[in-house]
Amino acid sequence: DSGVTQTPKHLITATGQRVTLRCSPRSGDLSVYWYQQSLDQGLQFLIQYYNGEERAKGNILERFSAQQFPDLHSELNLSSLELGDSALYFCASSGAQDRGYGYTFGSGTRLTVV
Amino acid sequence: DQQVKQNSPSLSVQEGRISILNCDYTNSMFDYFLWYKKYPAEGPTFLISISSIKDKNEDGRFTVFLNKSAKHLSLHIVPSQPGDSAVYFCAASAGYGNKLVFGAGTILRVKS
Questions:
Q1: Taking chain A, what is the end-to-end CA distance rounded to the nearest angstrom?
Q2: Which of A9, A101, A107 would you mutate first to test chain B, the one with the most B CBs within 10 A?
Q3: What percent of chain A has pLDDT over 70?
């Protein structure tokens, strides 16, 4: 158990729908990162939050949004889903113990859009 | 724009031999490099890292080499074991607290 919890583990939904992926970071970690891994692709950075504030943004589609709540958990919202959004979505967190580099990943949410 | 590249999608080695996984980067601002290992149905887990001020870092069977002039790093696993079979991701960071940029990964298969 890495300490980073992602729910749900699997999600199957239809095109055009909206889903919410949830992430609870490791205890004490202030930074949360979201990554997308599509088939045969590496981990693509989506967005980073630090203590509730957006810190960095990657190639995140306008149909996607995220937020980090006061209790530090984060949610990634995906709307108007398309078949190409099917992927593994990973959340990671980092804190002082990581000394500024590297982070711990959750086990991911596998999203299948049909 | 792929700033971190792993040009070998897969690698197969015999148990007991050396596994060498390679990674190239283009961004001169990267100052910290990491390798992550990923098993199916699990998230990536940290394996080993190296700062740009070093050229080598060892941790047991794992050694990472950094060649800054060539913008190249490699991960050596000696001796390779069947349990090392996984996807290995190279990652880089430009500055304290910044995001990691990942390569596409290399699938390592260690045959017994």
A1: 31
A2: A101
A3: 97
Query: For residue B63, what are its two tokens?
Result: 């050694």
Rounded (to 5) percent helix, strand, coil in chain A: 5, 50, 45
Q: What pLDDT digit, counting tens, does each position of A13-33 carry?
A: 999 999 999 999 999 899 999
As to burial, measured by CB atoms within 10 angstroms (0-12 exposed, 13-18 middle, 19+ buried), residue A65 is middle
Interface contact A35-B102, CB threshold 8 A:
yes
Rounded-to-integer distance, Cα A15 and Cα A28, Å: 37
Please indicate whether, in this complex, the C-beta atoms of A45 and B89 are within 8 angstroms of each other.
Answer: no
DSSP state for residue B26 in the 8-state scheme: -
B63-82 per-residue burial string, b: 16 or more CB within 10 A, e: under 16: bbbbeeeebebbbbbeebee
Could you give the CA distance from residue A78 to residue A75 in angstroms, rounded to a whole number?
A: 10
